[in-house]
């Protein structure tokens, strides 16, 4: 019981249980059976390999984007611009998909390279605005999100519209040689993307664990001024963190256009950047927990498709479940932190309090 | 101990299940409806949802399964393929994909589900021959009702200036705006005005509905129309901002009017300013198509359905309709006469298949001739209208 990891797992399970309980009550209020609802969500997500593939297909971009956000959060940056970086990656990949005519095995890496560059560039812009012009990354991010969103719709409704005249809903589907291919019929998920996601998860974990750069990000995130005085290149840390976040967000965007939709669509990022932000906050920037919780979210959302189709329940129910899950996780996170602090003050073993990139924590860190 | 009893019960249970399951399956005819917006949007998607309910009420044993708001913003976790898979698992044999946003995906998904029949609303894949053999297309000839909408505006305007709030620019939206323009011109003339003096301005907001920061704001654009001298604004977008703004301004004493779009009960948002609403009534065509699926006689077709001219508002027969609003007032008689004239034109066996008022001399905005004096515009040239018509103010592309 004293193992903090076990405690942590317990608290996550507790919060999931609590959210299910609250949702059950809500479901009963609207006159449905909660067991039925849960069963449908479960069936929707995992009834066969194809539906499980559906979960993975949402998990891949969500996990990629979230792993990138761990980097920026570690550097103390609220990278709300992740959503725009997903779009920037999607647009860059789409451009490459529309422009080059190469064999699939050459074209795909090229498109991914463009996506990575697009995401990184859009992240870098936020960094430059922040470090050069003193624009807070939240405002810079929101602004750049809006710009890239307008730009994508301009492309879809204008220069990239299908030859027969567009409805501004989608570009022409990209040719087959430009698309990521499913590994097989029964489990339609892109193997390349799956591997890249796994690599990203491990890489972020290792980067933060055992590299100088990871340390620099942490130092910058905890207290940028002190870090600077101690010789940490904080500007560089800020810029590189945003670029690295953009790289992963860009990959997520590429997956959306090269696999999920086979074309560029308005809002193709679908709020994945914002959802990732929430996830990373929930898990306290844990590189291990983030992909796991991302998977739970992907399963609930993906499974809810069945819920809507077969029970005709209001489409917002999945959103409600998700919202309650977030709230109860935050709640239990708070309870756990208090509980741990108490235990610590009892045993009097000074150890680093887990940091969150919030002003209060930054202050607490500087006070130490 | 009780193993025998248990075994007995289980066998009985399984036998019962086996006996009942096919019965249930035989009794039920499940159809899927995929919506691009919410089922209660007071517009395009609600009209489709209610058509599904109409089928449930009129086709014994039928049951609708539906999925609302399928678009990357509202349902980023799912795709048309996933939704169709879920519907098929629920027993659906035919699926209506009710937006041209689904046109490309419908073709792709239909190939993955060759035993399921798909009806894509407003696409032209069957017409162009690109559609797989299990896909059909359906659209209503709302052009007629846009002529009526334009007429209502032309009869009503005192300032001689009419605004048209369009969504985004494509063949469909151009031909609908142009139809409203032709109706407005004609009826402005009926009231003694000179059609050449009529100002008809189209503003495109950029999408089917308002997306803050992305599209122009429909509220603001409607106000701009009224501020710059228009006294009637016709809506071409999916949401009801035009009638709401008109109602607000009328409440403060202005003589302004609105023509909403898409949904039968749209006038309820501001009856005192509503000249009437051109709307879709998908129910009868849903029913007709699903019956053919049920009895096995379905074949792919590109259906562009006109109104029932004997009663354009007959809920059981007319694919499109126009419900006059309270604000049409004394002009109601002229408007009814206009509708009767359209009916006479459309049902005249000596008139070739064409839309009334779509006859020469007509030019496109850049001066290209669309039809010389006395010639009729082919209906397919209307479908694929490449520009707005000369005389309209606004962007063509």
CATH class of the largest domain in chain B, anyone?
Alpha Beta
Most strands sheet of chain B: 6 strands, parallel
Low-pLDDT parts of chain A are 349-368
Query: Biggest sheet of chain B, strands in spatial order?
Result: 2-1-3-4-5-11
CATH topology of the largest domain in chain B, what is it called?
Answer: Rossmann fold
Biggest β-sheet of chain A: count, sense, barrel? none
Order of helices and strands of chain A: HHHHHHHHHHHHHH
Query: Tell me, what's the shape of chain A?
Result: globular
How do the helices and strands follow one another from N- to C-terminus of chain B? HEHEHEHEHEHEHEHEHEEHEEHEEH
Helix content of chain A: over 70%
Contiguous helical run count of chain B:
12
Secondary-structure class of chain B: alpha/beta
- How much beta of chain B, percentage-wise? 15-25%
The global form of chain B is globular
Radius of gyration of chain A, taken over Cα atoms and rounded to an integer in Å: 21 Å
Please state the average pLDDT score of chain B.
91
Strand content of chain A: under 5%
Taken together, the total number of domains of chain B comes to 2
Low-confidence stretches of chain B: 10-25
In terms of quaternary structure, the protein is heterodimer
Could you describe the 3D structure shown?
The complex is a heterodimer of chains A (368) and B (397). Chain A is an all-alpha fold and 368 residues long. Helices cover 74% and strands 0% of the residues of chain A. Chain A has helices at 4-29, 34-46, 49-74, 82-99, 104-133, 137-157, 191-210, 212-222, 224-229, 234-260, 272-282, 289-311, 317-347, 359-367. The longest helix of chain A has 31 residues, at 317-347. Helices cover 39% and strands 17% of the residues of chain B. Chain B has helices at 3-27, 44-58, 80-89, 103-112, 125-128, 142-156, 171-190, 218-227, 241-251, 283-295, 332-347, 379-383, and strands at residues 29-34, 62-67, 92-97, 117-121, 135-140, 161-166, 199-204, 232-235, 257-259, 276-280, 302-305, 320-324, 362-363, 369-371. In chain B, strands 2-1-3-4-5-11 form a 6-stranded parallel beta sheet, sandwiched between helices. A 4-stranded parallel beta sheet of chain B has the order 7-6-8-9, with helices on both faces. Chain B has a two-stranded antiparallel sheet with strand order 10-12. Chain B is globular, with a radius of gyration of 24 Å. The chains are: A mainly alpha (368), B alpha/beta (397). Chain A binds chain B through residues 44, 47, 50-51, 54, 58, 146, 149-150, 153, 157, 164-170, 172-173, 256, 260-263, 265-272, 298, 301-302, 304-306, 308-310, 312, 315, and chain B through 32, 38, 65-69, 71-79, 82-83, 85-87, 89-90, 99-101, 103-104, 108, 124, 128, 168-172, 206-207, 211, 213-214, 384.
């Amino acid at each position: 019981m004293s193992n903090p990891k076990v405690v942590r797992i317990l608290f996550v399970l507790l919060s999931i249980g609590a959210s299910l309980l609250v949702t059950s009550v809500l479901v009963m209020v609207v006159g449905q059976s909660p067991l039925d609802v849960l069963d449908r969500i479960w069936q929707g997500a995992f009834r066969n390999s194809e539906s499980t593939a559906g979960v993975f297909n949402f998990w891949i971009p969500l996990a990629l984007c979230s792993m990138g956000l761990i980097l920026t959060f570690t550097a103390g940056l609220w990278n709300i611009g992740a959503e725009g970086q997903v779009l920037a990656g999607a647009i860059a990949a789409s451009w490459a998909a529309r422009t080059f005519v190469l064999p699939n095995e050459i074209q795909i890496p090229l498109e991914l390279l463009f996506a990575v560059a697009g995401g990184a560039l859009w992240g870098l812009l936020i960094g430059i605005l922040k470090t050069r012009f003193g624009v807070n990354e939240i405002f810079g991010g929101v602004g750049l999100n809006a710009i890239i969103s307008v730009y994508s719709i301009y492309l879809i409704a204008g220069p990239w519209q299908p030859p027969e005249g567009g409805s501004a809903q989608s570009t022409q589907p990209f040719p087959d040689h430009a698309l990521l291919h499913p590994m097989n019929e029964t489990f339609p998920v892109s193997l390349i993307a799956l591997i890249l996601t796994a690599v990203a998860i491990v890489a972020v974990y290792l980067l933060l664990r055992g590299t100088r750069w990871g340390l620099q990000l942490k130092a910058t995130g905890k207290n940028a001024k002190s870090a600077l005085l101690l010789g940490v290149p904080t500007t560089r840390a800020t810029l590189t963190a945003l670029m690295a976040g953009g790289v992963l967000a860009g990959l997520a965007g590429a997956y959306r256009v090269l696999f999920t939709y086979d074309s560029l669509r308005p809002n193709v990022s679908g709020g994945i950047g914002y959802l990732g932000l929430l996830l990373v906050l929930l898990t306290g920037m844990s590189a291990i927990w983030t992909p796991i919780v991302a998977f739970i979210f992907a399963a609930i959302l993906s499974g809810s498709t069945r819920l809507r189709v077969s029970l005709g329940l209001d489409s917002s129910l999945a959103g409600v479940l998700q919202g309650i899950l977030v709230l109860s996780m935050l709640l239990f996170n708070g309870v756990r932190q208090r509980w741990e602090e108490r235990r610590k003050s009892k045993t009097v073993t000074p150890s680093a309090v887990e940091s969150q990139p919030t002003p209060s924590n930054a202050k607490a860190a500087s006070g130490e | 101990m009780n193993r025998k009893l248990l075994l007995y019960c289980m066998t009985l249970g399984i036998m019962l299940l086996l006996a009942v399951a096919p019965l249930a399956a035989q009794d039920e005819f499940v159809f899927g409806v995929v919506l691009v917006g919410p089922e209660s949007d007071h517009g395009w998607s609600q009209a489709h949802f209610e058509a599904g309910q109409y089928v449930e009420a009129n086709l014994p044993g039928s049951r609708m399964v539906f999925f609302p708001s399928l678009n990357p913003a509202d349902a980023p976790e799912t795709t048309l393929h996933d939704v169709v898979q879920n519907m098929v698992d629920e027993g659906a044999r035919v699926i209506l994909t009710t937006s041209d946003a689904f046109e490309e995906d419908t073709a792709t998904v239909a190939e993955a589900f060759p035993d399921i029949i798909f009806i894509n609303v407003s696409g032209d894949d069957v017409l162009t021959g690109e559609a797989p053999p299990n896909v059909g297309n359906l659209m209503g000839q709302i052009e007629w009702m846009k002529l009526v909408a334009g007429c209502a505006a032309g009869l009503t305007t005192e300032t001689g200036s009419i605004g048209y709030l369009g969504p985004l620019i494509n063949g469909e939206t151009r031909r609908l705006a142009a139809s409203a323009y032709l109706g407005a011109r004609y009826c402005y003339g009926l009231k003694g005005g000179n059609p050449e003096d009529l100002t008809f301005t189209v503003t495109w907001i950029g999408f089917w509905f308002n997306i803050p920061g992305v599209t122009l704001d429909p509220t603001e654009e409607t106000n701009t129309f009224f501020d710059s001298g228009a006294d009637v604004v016709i809506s071409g977008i999916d949401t009801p901002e035009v009638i709401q703004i008109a109602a607000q301004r009328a409440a403060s004493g202005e003589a302004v009017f609105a023509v909403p779009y898409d949904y039968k009960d749209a006038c309820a948002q501001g009856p005192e300013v509503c000249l009437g609403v051109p709307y879709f009534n998908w129910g009868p065509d849903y029913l007709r198509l699903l019956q053919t699926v049920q009895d096995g006689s379905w074949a792919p077709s590109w259906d562009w359905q006109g109104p029932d001219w004997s009663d354009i508002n007959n809920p059981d027969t007319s694919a499109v309709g126009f419900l006059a609003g309270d604000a049409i007032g004394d002009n109601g008689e002229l408007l009814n006469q206009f509708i009767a004239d359209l009916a006479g034109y459309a049902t005249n066996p000596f008139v070739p298949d064409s839309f009334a008022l779509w006859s020469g001399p007509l030019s496109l905005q850049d001066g290209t001739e669309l039809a010389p004096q006395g010639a009729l515009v082919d209906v397919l040239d209307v479908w694929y209208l490449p520009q707005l018509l000369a005389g309209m103010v606004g962007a063509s592309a």
